[in-house]
Specification:
The complex is a heterodimer of chains A (128) and B (148). Chain A contains three helices and six strands; from the N terminus they run αββββαβαβ. With 128 residues, chain A is of the alpha+beta class. Chain B has 148 residues and is of the alpha+beta class. The chains are: A alpha+beta (128), B alpha+beta (148).
């Protein structure tokens, strides 16, 4: 009976927290403008983008990193280093990788890292 | 391989040039209405509950692609729509996506579905398929310079 009450309270607390704020609310802005009018002749590939970033959430994701521009800043930085002004075939994979899962399980989801792998071709766009 | 993996492919090319971004304008009513009706994919009822709302417009003129995703044991995809494919169908040479935002969350509906699945004996077996995650792409439709 006591165990059932504890389970109910835990579920209610998580549900209330989630209803109020949502778990794992993660937002990211894509920099610049996304366009589908460019052909291969309009661009020159100057490098590759392949980086993994980890965002850390706490308390089942009720508290976490909230900077919306983090992804845009990193993409711009990578492009700038390669002398690129665009990214083609941008692919973003969000996942709980093995070690973050271990972290989450061992801390009962108090600490819950989620990895974001960002891949694409860094390109120089010639056309307006 | 990770758990609760979600892949999003951005269609076309991300143009990072500041002057290009600054030159974008709101599309004409004609182009906008053609865009809005050409890929009208809003989901309703149980389908919306299970797979997300699909494509809808908010009052501020932004287009939203809303997708709820399920996994078996956190790894195998179950009954999922492809958000990347939905975005791909939106892409046309004349239209651009400005002010693009990605959002990923365990929403209130995800939590409610999880709790509801616990209450029904057979559905309770679905513990291995929950919780669901919701993702959303939203953007402001725009064109180059003055409206065509």
């Amino acid at each position: 009976m006591r165990q059932a009450a504890q389970r109910f309270l835990l579920t209610a607390a998580l549900a209330l927290g989630s209803l109020l704020g949502g778990c794992f609310v993660h937002q990211a802005a894509i920099p610049g403008v996304v366009r589908a009018d460019l052909n291969d002749d309009d661009i020159e590939v100057v490098g590759a983008l392949d980086a993994t970033y980890t965002r850390v959430f706490f308390l089942h994701g009720l508290v976490g990193e909230t900077d919306v521009d983090w992804l845009a800043a990193r993409i711009r930085e990578a492009a700038s280093e390669a002398g690129a002004n665009g990214v083609r075939h941008l692919r973003i994979e969000a996942t709980f990788q093995a070690w973050p899962m271990v972290t989450a399980i061992s801390t009962l989801s108090l600490v819950h890292p989620r990895a974001y792998r960002v891949q694409g071709e860094l390109v120089r766009i010639r056309r307006r | 391989m990770g758990c609760y993996a979600r892949v999003l492919r951005v269609p076309g090319v991300v143009d990072l040039r500041e002057d290009v971004a600054a030159a974008q304008a709101a599309p004409s009513t004609t182009l906008l209405s053609r865009h809005e009706t050409s890929a009208n994919g809003q989901r309703h009822g149980v389908d919306a509950l299970l797979r997300g709302r699909g494509r809808f417009l908010s009052k501020d003129g932004r287009v939203h692609l809303h997708d709820r995703r399920w996994w078996a044991l956190g790894t195998a995809d179950l009954y999922n729509a492809d958000l990347s494919a939905a975005w791909e169908t939106e892409a046309t040479p004349e239209l651009r996506f400005c002010d693009v935002h990605l959002r990923e969350a365990v929403e209130a509906t995800d939590v409610a579905l999880y709790i509801a699945s616990k209450a029904v004996p057979v559905v309770n077996l679905a513990w291995w398929a929950t919780p669901s995650f919701t993702a959303e792409v939203s953007y402001r439709p725009c064109v180059v310079g003055a409206s065509p």
